[in-house]
Amino acid sequence: MLVEKVVLSVDGIKIVSVLHKVKESSPVVITCHGMLSTKDSEKYLEIADILTKNGINVLRFDFRGCGESEGNFVNSTVTARLRDLKAVLQYVHSMFEDVGLLGSSLGGTISILAASKFKFIKALVTWAAPIFLKEIWNPLRGVIPEGFIKDLENVDISGAAKDVSHILVIHGDQDEIVPVRDAHVLFNLAKEPKELKIIRGGDHRFTNPELRKIALNESLRWFKQHLY
Prior knowledge:
The protein is α/β, with parallel strands linked by helices. The chain has one domain (2-226): Rossmann fold (3-Layer(aba) Sandwich), CATH 3.40.50.1820. It is built from 8 helices and 8 strands. The chain has helices at residues 42-53, 78-93, 106-117, 133-137, 146-151, 157-161, 181-189, 209-226, and strands at 2-10, 13-21, 28-32, 57-61, 99-104, 121-127, 167-172, 194-199. An 8-stranded mixed sheet has the order 1-2-4-3-5-6-7-8, sandwiched between helices. β5, α3 (106-117) and β6 form a beta-alpha-beta unit. α1 (42-53) crosses α8 (209-226) and α2 (78-93) packs across α3 (106-117).
């Protein structure tokens, strides 16, 4: 397996990614991290490990203002992150025909928005993705940049969810940040084929190794089913 760093330019900002290339003829999954996370968190390393061991290429990347990517976190809004993902998608699709997305938390929301726009995305998995972002972020004023909250006025997550199919929605019933209700709403809005997996005891980050393993195996199953 070839592991290489890839740097793209978006709005004059360097977006840093890592490509795990198993086989050019195999599918690829792009992972999208959450609000305060990075591509190098334990979760995304585990995702890359299980997928590549099963023959699926993986690209992990940092949104602007996060991890190794350039840019100011203050400007890392939903709209800006969607531009980052668009560039990554276009790069990946130039090499691989079958493309999937796996997004956790805010990365799941960004993935929904992208999947509604780019129809070459064949499969989508979300972990703990919020649908009602304003309800989550409003109590965090002063912590989350004001520009992030204002940008939400330009984002229609529910509308995007109605245009998404081939989606596996994973959520923990003990999520302390994003209510499990959001998972049910997302599932009901999305088109078939779709599946909902509520993991009993799971918190927002799936910190319990055994419960995270369930999420990993379910994600692998979904990609095997819909990317080949």
